[in-house]
Structure formats: structure tokens, C-alpha cells
Design a protein that fits this description.
single chain; Immunoglobulin-like; alpha+beta; elongated; 3 helices; five-stranded mixed β-sheet; 3 domains
Amino acid sequence: MPKVFSVFAFLLLTTILIASSPTYLKITGPVSSTIYNGMNISLGKVGPGESFYVMASASTANASGVPVNIGWNLLKASEVPAGWSSQQSTLYENPMKLKVTVSPDAQYGTYKMVLKAININNYSGLGNLTFTVFINVTPNVFNLKINPQNVSVGTGQPANFQVTINNTGASDDPFIINAYGLPSWNVSDEVIALHSKTSTFTYPVYVDEPGVYSFNITVSSASSFLISKSYRIHFISKATLLNDYKAIGKGVVLSPIIFEPEYAFMLFLSYLYNAITSL
């Protein structure tokens, strides 16, 4: 019992000493927290190969508790996991932004980094503030929702899908939206869904031939193919009278001669439609 009490007392005393220190660092991203020298902080989660920024204010207080507007001049990493890279903040920027890039080969799990806020040449008498950050590497860094999942449109007409990305990770790296499994080629779209935000994007899909199709709309990180989610979409492309009229002017229709007057009239309508839409 005395041993348990002594350990508890030591931890309590350490907490009091840390909390009583007036010099602090205010973290503003990817999480918000005020920390003191020697403290630990969790930054959330990030995918393998992704980059994220640790952002912090330059303002603090000196040993006497007097506010110092530009106290911290540099934020840097003194220890990062093997295979990772870091880029220290620009000197005297506010807020300070330290960039960290996770190894694309990083195994899933929690990693530790040691960071430092530095007062250059100890000009303000702050010294350095050293703290430890933890971040979880996982491919599960966003949630995805796509609407509608069943759609019916005319051939060649766009079907607009609403792609909602809830970025639950620490990275602001781009996401790529793609359609896979259709006979027509559809362009990919690169979008930015900021960390801890939910963003919705309109993604149009085209099919040139009538038919019933099942395909995937896939959202993946631009940094790693391991970070990816898909929705299965059922798509009906229907021929329309207007599409038939427009198609006549683009080729030769083989038909019995009795239908030639009708096709001539339809050809006239197609030319008329093209003339009107080009105005």
C-alpha cells in the first residue's frame, strides 16, 4: 500500500510541476492543445505514405509568466520513426508548420516522435520546449458515402453522383475519385477534403451505349493505394428519341427504302437541334 501511494504521489507531483510551468506551446493542428515541457500528446491517425502538418502558435509566456508574442521561432522534429521524413517550420513564421511524411511502407500501429519548439539564441529566455507526440498509422482514415447508388439516365447524359468524404485522419493530402467497370472512359477527379472535415463533391459519370451496368466509384488517397474505399453503383443507360435523332447525323442508317422519308425528317430534326444548341 505505501508503495502504491508513493507512485501516485510522484505522478501527482510531476503533473503539478509541469502544469505550474508558465512557458507553454499552443498546438493548433491537427489537434488543439496547450502543452508544457516534457508532456505527451496524441495527434490522431494518418495513412501510410501520407503527409501531415503539426502547427503551433509562436506566442507563449516566459519564466515569470509574462506574455511573449513571438517567443517560439522554430518547430522541428528531433526524433522520427525509421523511413519517415520531416521538414522543420520556416524560421519566424507564425503559426509554425512542421511537415511530417509517413513512410509508405509503415506498418499499422502507433508511432512516437519527439518535437521541439525553439527560441533562437534563447533571446526571450525561453530555451527549448521538448514534447512527445504519438500518431496511429492506419488505412482507415476516412468515411465515404455516395448517392444515388441506383440511377437511370439517357445515353450520353451525365449522371451526377454526390461523393461525401469525412476525413477522420490528420492529413490534408488529396483524394482521387474514379469510376471503374464502365465501357466508356470517365475522367478522374482530384479533390481536397481537409482533416476533421466532411466535404461533398459532385462527380459526373457518362455511358455512351444503352444497357444495364454495375460499376464501382472508388475514392483513394493520392498518397497511397492502400487508402481506398468503393461503392457499387447500378446504372441504367436508356436510349432516347432525341439521342436517336442526334445519332442519325453521325452515320449511315441501313434500312428499307420505305423508311427513307422518316429518316430524312429525323435528320432534319437533328440538324435543327444542333443549330439551336450551338447558338
